[in-house]
Amino acid sequence: MKNTKAILVLLAAMAFLFLALPGFAQDAPPPPPGQIVDQGPALNGEIMVNGELIEAPRPYIYRGYEGVVMLPLRAVAEKLGIAVEWVPDERSVTLDGAMQIWIGQPYYTRGQTAPIEFGPAPELSGGVTYVPLPFFNNALDGYHAYLSDGTVMIVDAETADIQDKPGTGAEHVE
């Protein structure tokens, strides 16, 4: 009788663990609609690409690890004319068929190059891949990304000099 009771308790404990643990392994839930995850200083949730506001159902921005501003990769990249492909088996994203980044890995590859580190790792939340704002300065050639009056600004590098003059309120994120 003692053995039967012990076995039932053990089975109940195992069943609880199997039911509870998968919830911890899933991606973080998406932020509430229309709300910035972290109301950190200077964030208003808007993303401007070459002077145009991104019109997307979920262009959330938030402050991630060590306060780095995180942006939705697909919404921004597609606005820049960059093709984006999600590779579910690898939990990675391919950009223009040449560059690849992985969720949870702070590096990217371009073609057959060795991995290049770029800062905090991309994150996945609610089916959306987020990358740190400096990714657009360091990994994608020809773009300049920064904060200006609480709005994330991403511009072609050739027009960055105009956007970057003193008195514009631009806060650089390098």
Summarize the structure.
This protein has 174 residues and is of the alpha+beta class. It has helices at 2-25, 73-79, 135-138, 157-163, and strands at residues 47-49, 52-53, 62-63, 69-72, 84-87, 92-95, 99-102, 107-110, 116-117, 123-125, 128-132, 143-148, 151-156, 170-172. The chain has one domain (47-172): Copper Amine Oxidase, Chain A, domain 1.
Q: Your description of this structure?
A:
With 174 residues, the protein is an alpha+beta fold. The chain has a single domain (47-172), classed as Copper amine oxidase-like, N-terminal domain (Copper Amine Oxidase, Chain A, domain 1, 2-Layer Sandwich), CATH 3.30.457.10. The chain contains 4 helices and 14 strands. The protein has helices at 2-25, 73-79, 135-138, 157-163; strands at 47-49, 52-53, 62-63, 69-72, 84-87, 92-95, 99-102, 107-110, 116-117, 123-125, 128-132, 143-148, 151-156, 170-172. The termini are far apart.
List keywords for this structure.
single chain; 174 residues; alpha+beta; Copper Amine Oxidase, Chain A, domain 1; five-stranded mixed β-sheet; five-stranded antiparallel β-sheet; 4 helices; 24% helix; disordered C terminus
